Amino acid sequence: xxxxxxxxxxxxxxxxxxxxxPQRRRSGGSRRKNGEPVLVREVQPxxxxxxxxxxVPVTREEQEPERPQNEGGEVGESGQGGLERRIAHGxxxxxxxxxxxxxxxxxxxxxxxxxxxxMPALRPLYEKYFRVxxxxxxxxxxxxxxxxxxxxxxxxxxxxxxxxxxxxxxxxANRHLRLLAADLVFMLPVANELARxxxxxxxxxxxxxxxxxxxxLVGVMPEGxxxxxxxxxxxxxxxxxxxxxxxxxxxxxxxxxxxxxxVGAEEIYPMIGNSKTLARILGFPYFPIxxxxxxxxxxxxxxxxxxxxxxxxxxxxxxxxxxxxxEDPMLMFNLTDQVREQIQHxxxxxxxxxxxxxx
Length: 359
Known about the structure:
This protein has helices spanning 10-17, 60-63, 79-99, 111-129, 158-170, 189-197, 205-213, 225-228, 245-253, 276-282, 329-353; strands at 29-33, 36-40, 133-135, 146-150, 177-181, 201-202, 217-220, 257-263, 273-274, 288-289, 309-312. It is α/β, with parallel strands linked by helices. The longest helix has 25 residues, at 329-353.
């Protein structure tokens, strides 16, 4: 693994998918399209001026090159060439995985696997099932470090991965969000490996500062298990944000804090009870009881198809504070309260605008 090197997977796509732009004709003549002759007009340059290629007027037939047709006679965008490119790209990806010709950072993050496998696997859930609507993506900077702070809910923490896809798919720079996760995530056999590969890391100040220092986007949900394990009767009521450690981290690195409000996750598993005995036996912080789980068995684990909205608020800058501000408990309390109030206010605003939980 240490000898692995990076071969950007975009190179395969760019080399195979490159299309040379056809040149426009300047002289008169005719050509054929679908068996019919098409007249190409001759254009004379103006006196005393050189004619640039882009100045040459062309007919509609010249502007719109012929597109390949499918077997049924309909025009297709990809055709056989697109299929061949996808197959070649997939084979190239498999070759790199089998030969170890890819890169994993010191946190275990595998960007290529995330973009090629993990996100595509979750994208139908994001696009078709929860139909996530994203607002305020322009508040996330194009580059440099930033700390995104969001509410946490849903009994099972699907909101974090949905927020990752929302940032990557909607941001103009396709930025990746590195989430800070609880230690329980890294104690579960399968979840541990997948979380590391997807860019998650332990929710501690040291890891967060290292990522922010590299100019990464870092996501944190300060409510923790108190947020995702709260009863359905307390939905959309933010729990305590801890001691404000995320604010201290942002102050040390001078990065903006971006509040994020997520509506729709609270209803995917309405938690109407909590079996503390089973939770204690299994070592979980809670054991949820919902209208469908555990009564329906595995079917009860299917989330309800709620309609989601994720809104990123205006950044709260921290670069104007002196270095010792990170040790000021009163300042940390005020900034933490400001972030929390902004998220809560936006949640209420989105709930008022919502007409249906499912549509």
